[in-house]
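User: I'm putting together notes for a lab meeting next week and I want to include a structural view of one of the chains we've been expressing. I don't have a solved structure, so I'd like a prediction I can at least talk through. The sequence is below, exactly as it appears in our construct file.
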Amino acid sequence: MYTSTYILLLGGLLATTVLAAPTLKREESKPRSFTIPVIRARSSLARRADGAVATYDLGGPYAFKSPVLVGGQQMMLQIDTGSADLWVFSTELPSADQGSHTLYDPKKSSNWKQMDGYTFDINYVGGVGASGIVGTDVVDIGVRPSKQPTFMESLQQYVDKPVFTTCFKYNSIGRLDFGDIQTSLYTGPLTEVPVNNGSGAWLLDDLWFEVNGQPIGITTPTSLTVDTGGVLFSPPSPVANAYWANVEGAKEIEGSWVYPCGATLPNFGVNFGQVYGDVNRTAVVPGHLLGQEDQKSPDSPGSCIGALQGITPGNGVPPVIGPPFMMAQFLVFNQAIPSISFAPQA
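Assistant: Thanks for the context. Below is the predicted structure for the 346-residue chain, given as structure tokens.
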């Protein structure tokens, strides 16, 4: 197992489940590719409190995490395409807010070095985020990357292909693969979509949307960031409003869409206006992945909170393609072009 020192932000996104360390393929001293498991776990993070470290409540069940060693301590982290930051829950969190989370303890690491005078305060989609202190420690995910601006970029020189893939599952262990594309994980041809890399994110332009195969009537194309660290599918509000208008009994309460629990939800299609080649342009998310039957609405008895929620344009929070999409589609992130390819999961 190889290691590297990274800047570490104390305050993170973990779960208590422990999985075995990933098995690596090696060719001499360089692995051609490697796989790490991904599990779906609930993300009820501690709310902000007075103290050195604080986090916010994500308020959603779709969080996909993988085992990573930080300072020799096994954490469950999100490998997040929507953020370049590495942060963890730590013992610096006030005891009243620690709950049952697995905590990184800097005192147990001989490599931890706090960066005096540095703090962080990060905000994500829906007003969630974290804040705390900053330092460096050794992070072990199975390769020994050089110091680079981002975690993802640092992996490129240690695999044969500059790609990583996601295959997230709802009720079983999914996977992240680095350096290789496993053809057994998807069906049909891959559709490749160019990435607008001007923002440094996995941003896709010229997107259109369908409900049960019918256009929803939005006349302006949309741009969305593909975010493995998100918890919901969060398009602009007009898109979400158009989707839920097709669900009898669905209603918006204080900015969140709820629907009658047990209702059959329609499929949601994402049409990509820019693709390479003459291929399928539409990726479909089955309706059952857009509901959250275990998320009951406290404000509407008999209603559940939808996994597709709108983002108000212009509020500084970017719309994202999140886990519901990734549980339906196999995704290939190509860092060299850059591009994202998709195909239905096998």
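A couple of points you could mention at the meeting. The two ends are 30 Å apart (CA to CA). The helical segments are 95-98, 151-154, 237-244, 323-326.

User: Perfect, that's what I needed.
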